[in-house]
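Contributing new complexes? Match this layout with 3-methyl-2-oxobutanoic acid.
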Amino acid sequence: MKSVLDFKKSDRKITMLTCYDYWSARLLNDSPVDCILVGDSGAMVMHGYPDTVAATSELMALHTRAVKLGAPDRFIIGDMPFLSFRGSLDKSLDCVMQLMRAGAQAVKLEGAAGHLELVQHLTESGVPVMGHLGLTPQSVHAFGGFKVQAKEAKAQQKLLKDAKDLQEAGCFALVLECVPTQIAREVTESLDIPTIGIGAGPHCDGQVLVLQDMLGAQTHFKPKFVRHFANVAEIIKQAIQDFSQDVQSGAFPTPQESYA
Ligand code: KIV
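Output block (do not edit by hand):
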C-alpha cells in the first residue's frame, strides 16, 4: 500500500472525507477515498452544537468505533477534541488511547505551539499524528468566528513556522483550513509531508471535506469552499414525502411487501 508520503512525491492527490457513523462509513469503505477523518465537526453536524468545543474524548471514541465497524479497510484518523491535548501528558495519552482502541489508526490535533513535545512523544510511541493549522475550529472564540486565517504577512510567517515545527515534531500530514491559496501553496512546497486542504485552494497535496457538506445533505450552511457534489437533502425530503403519501393512500405496503 502506498503511504501518504509517496503521494506527496507523485501527482496523485490525497482524498479525505469526514465520517461519524456506521452506515456512511460502509459507503466510504467501498469508495476510492484514501482516508476517513472522524472529525470533531461531528459535534456540529451530528449533534447540532454551534461549534466543536462541545466534543469530548468519549464522544469522539463512540463515533470512531462506529466508523471503524463500517469501514474496516480504510485509514481512520480520530480528532482529539477541545483541550484534550492541552492538560497533562497522562490526560492526553488517555484520549489517544480511547481513540486508537476505538479503531483510529492516527490522531489529529489542532495548532502547534504548546504541544510539539506531545506530538513528538506520540510519534515516538508509534502513534501517527496529523497536524491542523489555519482556521483551527477549536479556537473559534479566539478568532471571533469562523474566518479565513493567515491573511497578513506576519500570520503567514507564523503559519510557515508552525507547519515546519509540526513536521519536525513528527507529523505525517497537515490539514490546512481556510487560508489563502498562495500561502497554502508556499507551505505545501516547503514541507516534505503532505498538506490536505479545506478552503486552502488547489495546490495542497490533497483535499478534505465534511461528508454531509459535499453531499448537499445540510443546506443551512455552505461556506465558499464547499462544493455540493450531490443534492442529498432534496432526495431525502422527496423520499420522506413519497413515503408519507403512499402510506396515506394505501399504496404502501403492497402484498409483496407484506407477509402472507
Ligand atoms: O473536524 C473536522 O471535520 C475537521 C476538518 C474540517 C478538517 O477537522
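Reviewers usually confirm one structural detail per submission. For this one: The chain has two domains: 2-229, 232-260.
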